[in-house]
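pls design
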């Protein structure tokens, strides 16, 4: 074998190794990209399964026996009174009834004011003072004056002072 053939063979061998290395690198890149894609898909599927399982745990319904955190903002307009024990509510407190009306009344009697108060007056205070118009713009409710008056009266009743003296223009002594 002469020197020229030997050089030619060595050059071709080098070219084959360079070509094989490039092909191996390309295959490795394809495999790693495919592997990354598969890992990404499995992570996405795991996250979706987790979200679905969490979603199955939480029904779309509201909690039937909510804690005090639902009721406290509704009665925040009533100032502190001698009967008031809203700051001493145990964290484990839940209303006994599933009926929402009875839950409000129980909370009010237990923590705000223990004596009878007209239900219509109490529930009039739950109405929002603002409403959305037909264009989606927020405006004052039509009954806003009555809602504020009901809140004022509930506050006067819960204060423990004479309701008649505070509201003489609306009520007679009888």
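designed seq:
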């Amino acid at each position: 074998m002469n020197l020229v053939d030997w050089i030619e063979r060595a050059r071709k061998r080098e070219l084959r190794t360079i070509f094989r290395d490039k092909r191996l690198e390309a295959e490795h890149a394809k495999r790693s990209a495919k592997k990354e894609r598969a890992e990404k898909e499995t992570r996405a599927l795991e996250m979706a399964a987790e979200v679905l399982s969490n979603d199955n745990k939480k029904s779309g319904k509201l909690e039937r026996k909510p804690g005090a955190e639902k009721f406290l903002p509704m009665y925040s307009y009533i100032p502190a009174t001698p009967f008031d024990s809203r700051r001493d509510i145990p964290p484990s407190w839940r209303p006994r009834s599933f009926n929402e009306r009875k839950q409000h009344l129980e909370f009010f009697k237990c923590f705000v004011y223990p004596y009878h108060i007209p239900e219509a007056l109490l529930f009039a205070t739950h109405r929002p003072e603002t409403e959305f118009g037909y264009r989606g713009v927020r405006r004052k409710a039509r009954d806003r004056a009555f809602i504020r008056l009901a809140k004022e009266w509930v506050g006067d009743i819960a204060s423990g002072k004479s309701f008649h003296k505070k509201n003489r223009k609306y009520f007679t002594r009888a």
